[in-house]
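Task: encode each sequence below as structure tokens.

Item 1
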Amino acid sequence: MNLTPMTLDDFLRLAWVPVVEPESDGDGWRLTIPPLPDFEYYADTEEAVKEDWRGALRAHLQVYLLTGKAIPLPQFPEPKTEQDGSVTYDLEAAAQP
């Protein structure tokens, strides 16, 4: 078996499910990704936090790779087969820690 290590771009293509919530003091927004316990991204508006987090994720994962730290992978819920034969996933359930 020939295993190839994953690159930064491989990790960035995974289905990371962000969790966005207002700051407790009401001053800004916080985005986390549950499999990454040390990743938090903050912005002044909900729109900004949703638009800008991927760059922060790139930098965060790059540090993991440079330091040799294991990157926890996103968890996926069990697929559900719909009546029409399509397969769906409950991504909100996947985002719950």
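Item 2
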Amino acid sequence: MIFIISDLKATALLPLADEYQIEGLKQLCVTELKKFAVPRLEYVSLGIIYNLDDLLSAAIETCAKKLGLEEIDRQQNLPENKDVVDDKLVLRILRWV
């Protein structure tokens, strides 16, 4: 059986998949999140929180290529990123380019 999920559903399901150790669902969420068209620091946060190096790398690369400093700053202050994305990580994103 093949399941198709959106990036919004993947961000909601990933914490549950991690908590209940459902590896197939967790990987499906990561695969979907790596396809994102709109760069979001939330995906960087998810990569950090759930120790998903492949998602973290893809999210950093996409944010570095597509977000300006003002947008990075705006997203850094969103509730889902505030405690995870620190200035050191923002510098890492900015230096990636």
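Check on item 2: Residues 7 and 33 are 6 Å apart (CA to CA). The radius of gyration is 13 Å.
End of task.
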